[in-house]
């Protein structure tokens, strides 16, 4: 028996802190952000593509299967999200002292 998935859950991205931080960065930075499973055709046609890593933040993807994305250049939204993510990760109020917990 199948069950419905929560509205914000997508197969490619499990719910987690990094995902939540990136979506908050989008919201606070005035960037339209959403989650979605995409087809390969949509990936090829994208203006920008990035993946996300907890330690690295947004990582630009400029080529998929030999096809350039955004002319092979890192897009403006990805650059902006990288700055916002780095700021979020270094704000004093977002830091957690494991030795005081």
From TrEMBL:
Domain of life: Eukaryota
Coiled-coil residue windows: none
Pfam families membership: Aminotran_4 (PF01063)
InterPro entries the record matches: Aminotrans_IV, Aminotransferase-like, BCAT-like_C, Class-IV_PLP-Dep_Aminotrnsfr
Annotated TM spans: none
Similarity remark: Belongs to the class-IV pyridoxal-phosphate-dependent aminotransferase family.
Protein name: Branched-chain amino acid aminotransferase
Native species: Tetraparma gracilis
């Amino acid at each position: 028996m199948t069950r419905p998935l929560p509205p914000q859950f997508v197969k490619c991205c499990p719910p987690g802190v990094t995902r939540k931080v990136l979506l908050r960065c989008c919201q606070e930075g005035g960037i339209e952000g959403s989650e979605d499973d995409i087809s390969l055709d949509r990936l090829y046609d994208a203006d920008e593509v990035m993946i996300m890593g907890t330690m690295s933040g947004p990582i630009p993807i400029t080529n998929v299967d030999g096809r350039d994305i955004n002319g092979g250049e890192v897009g403006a939204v990805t650059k902006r999200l990288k700055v916002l993510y780095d700021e979020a990760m270094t704000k004093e109020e977002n830091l957690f002292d494991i030795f005081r917990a």
